[in-house]
């Protein structure tokens, strides 16, 4: 069902960096944009020979990229993007998993779940740009993001039941929050794949856009959305949305002394756009 694979080991596109240290040299790396998008960072996935499937090394690289972003105060929005045309992430690397014993499988699935939780816990808005297949763990990665943008031709599904498995990295919890319990059960029980337009109609993605010749229409829309979010976002505001009611009250009390809150009030009083700094 997948498009043809790119050449093995295809090099990622070179991109200018505004960060003081280089990204990891492997299949997953982070990139902080300069120029028109200061404050926007990207997680770039480029494991073409395995369709960005989640193997041990790839997962370690994703953890590393997330760790760098977590402590970068200049980053205000993160976009997850594939550099493999026609693929977002094909899910777990089942060829690699076939070589694991039962104990190793259990440990690795737990690590995948931790990875998705780390994505969900990033203290800034996250956007998944789904320009191709997002299956199994790939869809779970997108579900861990705050927002999702898909090409109308993209294919998504928690297909684990078709392999005698169950979603193990948070999909059973996050999918119902997007589409409702009944529809989530149907998609999981059947392992059905849906396209971007269907995903939009059921609330799984925020936007569905026609694919372009370059194959990056979802990324372009995600970038536009990120730039729209950028002037508004405050780190403490995002954190407050990730907690329950009790934590939200506590975070709001802390926000009273937040510089961004004070700037927002001053900007309103002075009838000008706010200039948030994420503090």
UniProtKB/TrEMBL annotation:
Query: Which parts form a coiled-coil structure per UniProt?
Result: none
Region Disordered: start and end of each range?
Answer: 1-28
Note whether Protein biosynthesis occurs among the keywords: no
A GO term from the CC aspect: mitochondrion
What the entry lists under CDD domains is as follows: crotonase-like
The protein's GO terms of the molecular function aspect are:
lyase activity
UniProt keyword annotations, A-Z: Lyase
GO biological process terms, alphabetically, are: fatty acid beta-oxidation
UniProt keyword Lyase, yes or no: yes
Q: Which PROSITE patterns match?
A: ENOYL_COA_HYDRATASE
Show the stretches that span the lipid bilayer: none
Which InterPro entries does the UniProt record give? ClpP/crotonase-like_dom_sf, Enoyl-CoA_hyd/isom_CS, Enoyl-CoA_hydra/iso, Enoyl-CoA_hydra_C
**Locations of Pro residues compositional bias?**
1-25
What Gene3D superfamilies does the database record attribute to this sequence? 2-enoyl-CoA Hydratase, Chain A, domain 1, Lyase 2-enoyl-coa Hydratase, Chain A, domain 2
Q: Which family does it belong to?
A: Belongs to the enoyl-CoA hydratase/isomerase family.
Q: What is this protein called?
A: Enoyl-CoA hydratase domain containing 2
Q: What is the lineage of its organism?
A: Eukaryota, Metazoa, Chordata, Craniata, Vertebrata
